[in-house]
Amino acid sequence: FGISSNETFVITTTNRTEITEDNFSKLVQDGVTLYLLQSVDQMLLLATKERIDFLPHYDTLVKSGMYEYYASEGQNPLPFALAELIDNSLSATSQNTGIRSIQIKLLFDESQGKPAVAVIDNGSGMTSKQLNNWAVYRLSKFTRQGDFESDHSGYVRPLPVPRSLNSDISYFGVGGKQAVFFVGQSARMISKPATSQDVHELVLSKEDF
C-alpha cells in the first residue's frame, strides 16, 4: 500500500470500528470492506464504493410486493406502500430523545431527475453494513442472526395498539424494497449514523437488474 516504515496507520470497518487482535476473527470475513486510514476519525478524501452481492431472481425484488398490494380487495394500495416506507422512519426514530421528524416529499422537478417520493427522517441512521442488510430480501429487521447487523439496532417492537406514531404501521409486512418497486423503478437510500462522520448511500435499480 505504499506505507513507509515510520508511518502509523489503522484498519477499520466501514463503521469506523478499528480492527484489533481481539476482534479480528469476528469482524474480518470474506467480502467485508475495510478502510486503511491514518486514524479512525480521518476524513475520507473521496467517496468509496462497495458492491453488494446477493442471489435472488430479478422478479423476487421487483415484483414480490405486487401480489400483496394488488390483493388488497379493491382498496387503493398506494397508501399501504407509503405506510411501509414511513414505517421504516418510525422504527429509526423510535429511540429519539427529542423531536421525531418524518417528512414525505413528492418531487416533480424534471431538472433534478425523474419524479420521486422522498421520505426523510432524523432517526439513528444506518451504517454501510446495515444498508447492505436492508438490500437482502426477507432479512427481517427483527430476526437478524449471526454476523448480520440490524438496520434498526436496539429497536423494540411496541405493544399492540391502533396504527399510529407509537406502533408499526406496516400493512403487509413485505418490506420497504417491495414498497419501493411497487411505487417506482429504483430505491436510493442516503443515511448518516448518529455516531459516525460518514454518509452512506445505497442504490437499487430495476434498470441495473
TrEMBL record:
CDD domains: HATPase_SMCHD1-like. It holds the Pfam family HATPase_c_3. Gene3D superfamilies: Histidine kinase-like ATPase, C-terminal domain (3.30.565.10). InterPro entries: HATPase_C_sf, SMCHD1. One of its GO terms (biological process) is double-strand break repair. It comes from the Eukaryota. This is SMHD1 protein. It comes from Sylvietta virens (Green crombec).
